[in-house]
């Protein structure tokens, strides 16, 4: 049985626990003796976990876009277990489509789930964590929350927004004893790009974009969600957990490349930055 850094098993609240990362996170926590409130759109997807772990698992039916339901689910978990130690905002999906192809309704739906859903759950949990003087909010982001690729603009918008607000949150709640971690996975063996994904109506104009994206995904060796769960246990058990955690061997290489290119772009634009501030390239005031 896990004692972590607190001397007792942890209580988790995990959204999107029916499959993929969420399911593996719940399974890993339960198998080491923790207690888990796991949400899913369909409770039948959690039947086997209930059968295996009994009352240490609280299955909750939830659509995270329903703010009132988010608040009720968090409240129910707290009433059942008496505390919440780890909140994992995992529910979400990928939306494929070029920016010109994505409809307003599709873009709003992507943000409602991936961004607002995570925020409503977080806000529902914060009074409980503040009252405890401890807790850990884990936001499932992506390397797509750091960089952007073609045909995924709506998805990137949702994850970049989640990254920004979570970094602000981390600064605000650290003095209250609450940690925030953004988990940024690369490619993993989940159905993120399969049944869970949504796709805009394609136009022939952007067929070349989809073909290039398919070649890129096909060249990647996906990671194991079970291994990611083991890594998450290390994160939540850490006395000083990181604000950001890259998951997957390829994630480190991809993100490093993204930042190296950005840094070079900013270095190349140093003269322009000075000029826009009213200085010449030699540092003297413009016009002096």
Question: How would you characterize this protein structure?
Answer:
The protein is α/β, with parallel strands linked by helices and 288 residues long. The chain folds into two domains: 11-247, NAD(P)-binding Rossmann-like Domain (Rossmann fold, 3-Layer(aba) Sandwich); 252-288. It has nine helices and nine strands. It has helices at residues 20-31, 47-53, 67-81, 104-132, 153-173, 207-218, 225-237, 249-268, 270-276; strands at 11-14, 35-40, 57-61, 86-89, 95-96, 135-140, 178-185, 198-199, 244-247. The strands form two sheets. A seven-stranded parallel sheet has the order 3-2-1-4-6-7-9, sandwiched between helices. A two-stranded parallel ribbon has the order 5-8. Helix 2 links the parallel strand 2 and strand 3. Helix 1 crosses helix 7 and helix 4 (104-132) runs parallel beside helix 5. The chain starts with 10 loop residues before the first strand and ends in a 12-residue tail after the last helix.
């Amino acid at each position: 049985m896990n004692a972590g850094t607190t001397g007792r098993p942890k209580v988790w609240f995990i959204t999107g626990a029916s499959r993929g990362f969420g399911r593996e996170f719940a399974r890993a926590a339960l198998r080491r003796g923790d207690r888990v409130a796991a949400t899913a759109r369909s409770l039948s997807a959690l039947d086997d976990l209930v059968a295996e772990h009994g009352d240490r698992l609280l299955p909750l039916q939830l659509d995270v876009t329903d703010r009132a339901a988010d608040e009720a689910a968090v409240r129910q978990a707290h009433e059942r277990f008496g505390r919440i130690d780890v909140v994992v905002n995992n529910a979400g999906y990928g939306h494929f489509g070029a920016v010109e192809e994505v409809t307003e309704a599709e873009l709003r739906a992507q943000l409602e789930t991936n961004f607002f859903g995570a925020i409503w759950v977080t806000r529902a949990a914060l009074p409980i964590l503040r009252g405890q003087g401890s807790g850990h909010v884990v936001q499932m982001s992506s390397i797509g929350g750091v960089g952007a690729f073609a045909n995924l603009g709506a998805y990137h918008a949702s994850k970049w927004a989640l990254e920004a607000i979570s970094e602000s949150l981390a600064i605000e709640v650290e003095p209250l004893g609450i940690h925030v971690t953004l988990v940024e996975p690369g490619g993993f063996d989940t159905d993120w790009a399969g049944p869970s994904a949504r796709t805009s109506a394609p136009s022939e104009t952007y067929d070349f974009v989809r073909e290039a994206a398919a070649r890129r995904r096909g060249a990647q060796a996906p990671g194991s969600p079970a291994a990611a769960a083991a890594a998450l246990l290390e994160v939540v058990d850490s006395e000083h957990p990181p604000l950001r955690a890259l998951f997957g061997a390829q994630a480190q290489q991809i993100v490093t490349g993204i930042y190296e290119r950005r840094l070079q772009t900013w270095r190349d634009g140093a003269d322009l930055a000075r000029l826009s501030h009213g200085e010449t390239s030699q540092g003297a005031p413009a016009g002096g």
